[in-house]
């Protein structure tokens, strides 16, 4: 069974953030999809079972290191993919909290270093990945470039305030994706550029904030990954540049 029926088979896919909670679930979903011919998995650290997985899928899967704080590393990843013409690029990396910093409850908690970390990982890194990877995508058939965003990046939906750095970085990401979609449409008319809100997923990123989440609103990584792939498969080029939730609903800017 395939979740990617709108793509021409076989599909070459690129997954950035393959060692994270949602990234790993997407890795497994993609490998289980019969239409995926080749999957290039990138992450900051190589998963412990990378060698075993690569041996299990020797002709379909390869793991590679990437440093999203270094554009030369991103450019090197693009060089590795040169000539492969991927149709699907998924960016699943993200930063919400660190060992020393948590989302701000007030402007009094704003910290320059934490803010810059959020902007680097959540906004600039996906934009640089788009800069280097979109030129590799086919111009004559369906292609998708998608990055994990968040509902809290919506300015019009912000009713609670707080989380200054994370909200700002996701709002910036949404704008960067919109700009990318407008520019790319001129040369890649069948390309869909999209932000994805995965819901609240049971991963280390959300773990400190799960206490107030209703049980039926805390998703497993597997459920979220499957839902996001179904959403992506249904998007059209006319919807490029928007942000969509796990249930397919468009999120306002």
Short description:
The chain is built from six helices and ten strands; from the N terminus they run βαβαβαβαβαβββαββ. The protein is an alpha/beta fold.
Annotation keywords:
253 residues, alpha/beta, Rossmann fold, eight-stranded mixed beta sheet, 10 strands
What can you tell me about this protein's structure?
This protein is an alpha/beta fold and 253 residues long. The chain has a single domain (11-251), classed as 3-Layer(aba) Sandwich (Rossmann fold), CATH 3.40.50.720. It has six helices and ten strands. Strand 1 (11-16), helix 1 (21-32) and strand 2 (36-43) form a beta-alpha-beta unit. Helix 1 crosses helix 6, helix 3 (71-81) runs parallel beside helix 4 (112-133) and helix 4 packs parallel to helix 5 (164-184). The model has no long low-confidence stretch (mean pLDDT 94).
- The averaged pLDDT comes out at 94
Query: What is the element string, with H for helices and E for strands?
Result: EHEHEHEHEHEEEHEE
Can you list the strand order of the major beta sheet? 3-2-1-4-5-6-9-10
Q: Total number of β-strand segments?
A: 10
- Determine the oligomeric state from the structure: single chain
The CATH level-2 architecture is identified as 3-Layer(aba) Sandwich
The class by helix and strand makeup works out as: alpha/beta
Q: Supply the number of structural domains.
A: 1
Q: Report low-confidence residues grouped into runs of 5 or more.
A: none
Helix fraction?
25-40%
Shape: globular
CATH fold call: Rossmann fold
Total helical segments? 6
Q: CATH homologous superfamily name?
A: NAD(P)-binding Rossmann-like Domain
Question: How much beta, percentage-wise?
Answer: 15-25%
The span between the termini is 34 Å
Question: Could you describe the largest sheet, including whether it forms a barrel?
Answer: 8 strands, mixed
* The level-1 CATH class: Alpha Beta
User: What is the CA-atom radius of gyration, in angstroms?
Assistant: 17 Å
Organism: Marinobacterium halophilum
Protein name: NAD(P)-dependent dehydrogenase (Short-subunit alcohol dehydrogenase family)
GO molecular function: oxidoreductase activity
InterPro entries: Fungal_SecMetab_SDRs, NAD(P)-bd_dom_sf, SDR_fam
């Amino acid at each position: 069974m395939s979740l990617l029926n709108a793509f021409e088979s076989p599909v070459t896919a690129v997954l950035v953030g393959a060692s994270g909670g949602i990234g790993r679930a997407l890795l497994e979903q993609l490998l289980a999809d019969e239409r995926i011919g080749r999957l290039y998995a990138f992450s900051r650290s190589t998963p412990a079972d990378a060698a075993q997985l690569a041996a299990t899928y020797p002709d379909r899967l390869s793991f590679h290191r990437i440093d999203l704080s270094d554009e030369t590393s991103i450019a090197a990843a693009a060089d590795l993919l040169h000539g492969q013409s991927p149709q699907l690029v998924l960016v699943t990396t993200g930063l919400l909290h660190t060992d020393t910093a948590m989302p701000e409850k007030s402007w009094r908690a704003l910290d320059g270093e934490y803010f810059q970390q959020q902007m680097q990982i959540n906004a600039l890194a996906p934009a640089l990945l788009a800069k280097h990877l979109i030129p590799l995508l086919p111009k004559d058939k369906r292609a998708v470039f998608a990055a994990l965003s968040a509902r809290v990046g919506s300015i019009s939906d912000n009713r609670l305030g707080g989380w200054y750095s994370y909200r700002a970085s996701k709002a910036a990401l949404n704008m960067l994706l919109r700009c990318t979609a407008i520019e790319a449409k001129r040369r890649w008319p069948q390309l869909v550029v999209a932000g994805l809100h995965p819901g609240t997923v049971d991963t280390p990123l959300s773990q400190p904030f799960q206490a107030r989440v209703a049980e039926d609103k805390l998703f497993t990584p597997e459920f979220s990954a499957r839902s996001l792939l179904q959403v992506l498969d249904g998007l059209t080029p006319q919807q490029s540049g928007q942000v969509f939730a796990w249930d397919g609903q468009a999120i306002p800017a």
